[in-house]
C-alpha cells in the first residue's frame, strides 16, 4: 500500500447505527486530518492531529469522534448521525501540521438514511 | 460575506492561453494561502501554497497575493486540457483553514 488509504470506500448507515471510518498513511508523516466534502458546501476541515495529539477541532458535532492511536492511523467514529451528514469524508496527512505537504486519501462516501 | 469566495465558473480557456483564477478572503490577518486541484471524482491535491510575504512560481503555475485588496490569484500559463479541473482556494487564518467553493476550469483544445 502506498500513500493514504481509507476504508471503507462506501458506507450506508442508519441514524441509530455506530460505525467507524479508518485512514492509514504510509508516508511517514506526523500530521493527519479529517475533512468533509458535501455537494453544496465548500470543503470543511474537521480535525487536525499532530503526533497523535488533537490540535484542532473545528466546531464539529460530538456525534463525530476522532481517534489517532499512532501517527499512521486515524479513525472517525460515527454515532447517531443525521441525513445531512451524508458526504465524502476525506483523510489527509502531511509532514507537519502546517498543511504544506498534504496528501489526500480517496475518501469514504457516506450515506445516512 | 463568505470568508473565502471564488467564482464557481465554469471558466473556459483555450488551450495554450493563460488561465486566471481568483479568490477573495475576509480575514485580514490570514497568513497562508493554498491552491488545490480536484479532478472530477477524485480527491483534492495541493498544487501551490504561499505565505503573506510574497508570490510564488512553480513551473506553469504562479500564485499571487494582493493583501491590500484581500485576494489571491492562481495563474496557469500554457494551459493544457489536463488542467481541466475544479480549483479550490483555502486560506489559513489564526484559528482555522477555510475553503472556497471552488472554480471549475475547462481548457478547450
Protein model, in words:
The complex is a heterodimer of chains A (113) and B (109). By secondary structure, chain A is an all-beta fold. Chain A has no helices and 11 strands. Chain A has strands at residues 4-7, 10-13, 18-25, 31-37, 44-50, 53-57, 64-70, 73-79, 87-94, 103-104, 108-112. In chain A, strands 2, 4, 5, 6, 9, 10 and 11 form a 7-stranded mixed β-sheet that branches. In chain A, strand 5 (44-50) and strand 6 form a beta hairpin. Chain A is globular and about 35 Å long. The mean pLDDT of chain A is 94. Chain B is mainly β. Chain B is 0% helix and 55% strand. Chain B has strands spanning 4-6, 11-14, 19-25, 32-38, 45-51, 56-58, 61-66, 71-76, 85-92, 97-99, 103-108. In chain B, strands 2, 4, 5, 9, 10 and 11 form a 6-stranded mixed β-sheet that branches. In chain B, strands 1-3-8-7-6 form a 5-stranded antiparallel β-sheet, with no helix packed on it. In chain B, a hairpin with a 6-residue loop joins strand 4 (32-38) and strand 5 (45-51). The mean pLDDT of chain B is 94. Classes of the chains: A mainly beta (113), B mainly beta (109). The interface between A and B is medium-sized, with 18 and 19 residues.
Tags for this model:
heterodimer, A: 113 residues, mainly beta, seven-stranded mixed β-sheet, four-stranded antiparallel β-sheet, B: 109 residues, six-stranded mixed β-sheet, five-stranded antiparallel β-sheet, globular
Mean pLDDT across all residues of chain A, rounded?
A: 94
Average the pLDDT over all residues of chain B and give the rounded result. Answer: 94
Number of strands of chain A: 11
Q: Overall 3D geometry of chain B? A: globular
Q: What separation lies between the terminal Cα atoms of chain A?
A: 32 Å
How many strand units of chain B? 11
Kindly provide the radius of gyration of chain A, computed on alpha-carbon positions and rounded to a whole number of angstroms. Answer: 13 Å
Largest sheet of chain B: 6 strands, mixed
Number of helices of chain B: 0
Q: What's the main sheet of chain A like?
A: 7 strands, mixed
Q: Structural class of chain A, please?
A: mainly beta
Number of helices of chain A: 0
Q: Which chain pair shows the most residues in contact?
A: A-B, 18 and 19 residues
SSE string of chain A, helix = H, strand = E? EEEEEEEEEEE
> Beta-strand percentage of chain A?
over 45%
Amino acid at each position: 500500500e502506498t500513500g493514504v488509504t481509507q476504508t471503507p470506500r462506501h458506507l450506508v448507515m442508519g441514524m441509530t447505527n455506530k460505525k467507524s471510518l479508518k485512514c492509514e498513511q504510509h508516508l511517514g508523516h506526523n500530521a493527519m486530518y479529517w475533512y468533509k466534502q458535501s455537494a453544496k458546501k465548500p470543503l470543511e476541515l474537521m480535525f487536525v492531529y499532530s503526533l497523535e495529539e488533537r490540535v484542532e477541532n473545528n466546531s464539529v458535532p460530538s456525534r463525530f469522534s476522532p481517534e489517532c492511536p499512532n501517527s499512521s492511523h486515524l479513525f472517525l467514529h460515527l454515532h447517531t448521525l443525521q441525513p445531512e451528514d451524508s458526504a465524502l469524508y476525506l483523510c489527509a496527512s502531511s509532514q507537519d501540521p502546517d498543511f504544506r505537504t498534504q496528501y489526500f486519501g480517496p475518501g469514504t462516501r457516506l450515506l445516512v438514511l | 460575506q463568505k470568508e473565502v469566495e471564488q467564482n464557481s465558473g465554469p471558466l473556459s480557456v483555450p488551450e495554450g492561453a493563460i488561465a486566471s483564477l481568483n479568490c477573495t478572503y475576509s480575514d485580514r490577518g490570514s497568513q497562508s494561502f493554498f491552491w488545490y486541484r480536484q479532478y472530477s471524482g477524485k480527491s483534492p491535491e495541493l498544487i501551490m501554497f504561499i505565505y503573506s510575504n510574497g508570490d510564488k512560481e512553480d513551473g506553469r503555475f504562479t500564485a499571487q497575493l494582493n493583501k491590500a485588496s484581500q485576494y489571491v490569484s492562481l495563474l496557469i500559463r500554457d494551459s493544457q486540457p489536463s488542467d481541466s479541473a475544479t480549483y479550490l482556494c483555502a486560506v489559513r487564518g489564526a484559528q482555522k483553514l477555510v475553503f472556497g467553493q471552488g472554480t471549475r476550469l475547462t481548457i478547450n483544445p
